[in-house]
Write a structure and sequence with these properties.
- It is a single chain.
- 73% of the residues lie in helices and 0% in strands.
- It has a single domain (9-253), classed as 3 helical TM bundles of succinate and fumarate reductases.
- The longest helix has 34 residues, at 8-41.
- α8 (160-168) crosses α10.
- The protein is elongated, with a radius of gyration of 21 Å.
- It has 11 helices and no strands.
- The protein is mostly helical and 254 residues long.
- It has helices spanning 2-6, 8-41, 61-69, 72-102, 120-123, 125-142, 148-152, 160-168, 171-198, 206-239, 246-253.
Length: 254
């Protein structure tokens, strides 16, 4: 077993399994974030019931989604998710270093290699991974630390609508966020079909299909998150800033 985990195939398999788990989480998380867009379309953005109970009828869709993300099941999954991220990152670094050495290090372009036929994403997964780490750090400090972490500590989580507006009312933040998610798209688009290739689905019939499915899944995840950010920017600059939420927004930004 130890030999398998340290072999090239074993490392790719672990990377694929952890990546599949993270893709499913991103789809769930992106869908819940997109509920804020649905709230805006229905004129319910920022709608939170006056009581502190979860799943209240007076809450908007996004607040209900945040209640679900604060459920005991998700709280149990958080450390598992964190472990999955750590494993994915560590094995990614290990694979990158291993491939770099196997291809000749600094002299890898002096010898023939099939790598020259790889896509840009395949050749630069490490760079994309570093950009995604920046996105992860941004998310942890701006959202997770002010919501789930507060609940873990027994404190009251901040209003999720106001967090969205406070974060994305700045156009530069939205621009950086979109660049981050372009990097995520490229990472997922390559990682998705590569994941199936690792487990043997690499024949001529299925590989082209998996490439297209990977593009669709990656695009869906990115669109869900980017739509959330753009909608929060609109709410913060053209809707929320002139509404009843101005005072708590100023307090949150202060």
């Amino acid at each position: 077993m130890a030999n398998f985990l340290t072999s090239s195939i074993g490392k790719k398999f672990i990377q694929s399994v952890s990546g599949a788990f993270l893709i499913m989480f991103l789809l769930l998380h992106g869908t819940i974030n997109f509920f804020s867009v649905l709230d805006s379309l229905q004129g319910q953005f920022g709608k939170v019931a006056p009581d502190a109970f979860p799943y209240t009828h007076g809450d908007g869709w996004f607040q209900l989604g945040c209640d679900f993300m604060s459920s005991p099941f998700i709280k149990v999954m958080v450390p598992i998710l964190a472990l999955g991220f750590v494993i994915h990152i560590l094995y990614g670094v290990w694979l990158t270093a291993d491939n770099y050495i196997r291809r000749g290090g600094l002299k890898r372009y002096e010898v023939p290699s099939k790598a020259k036929n790889d896509s840009w994403s395949a050749k630069n997964m490490a760079i994309l991974g570093i950009l995604i780490l920046g996105l992860l750090g941004f998310h942890l400090t701006h959202f997770w630390a002010k919501m789930q972490l507060q609940e873990f500590l027994g404190a009251e989580a901040q209003n999720p609508y106001m967090l969205l507006v406070a974060t994305f009312r700045n156009p530069w933040v939205v621009a950086c966020y979109i660049i981050w998610f372009v990097a995520l798209f490229l990472h997922l688009e390559h990682g998705f079909w590569s994941m199936f290739q690792t487990i043997g689905w690499n024949n001529k019939k299925w590989l082209p299909r998996l490439r297209w499915i990977g593009r669709i899944v990656a695009a869906l995840i990115v669109l869900l998150f980017v739509a959330t950010a753009v909608n929060a920017f609109i709410e913060g600059n053209f809707e929320t800033a002139s509404s009843q939420y101005t005072e708590p927004l100023i307090s949150l930004l202060g």
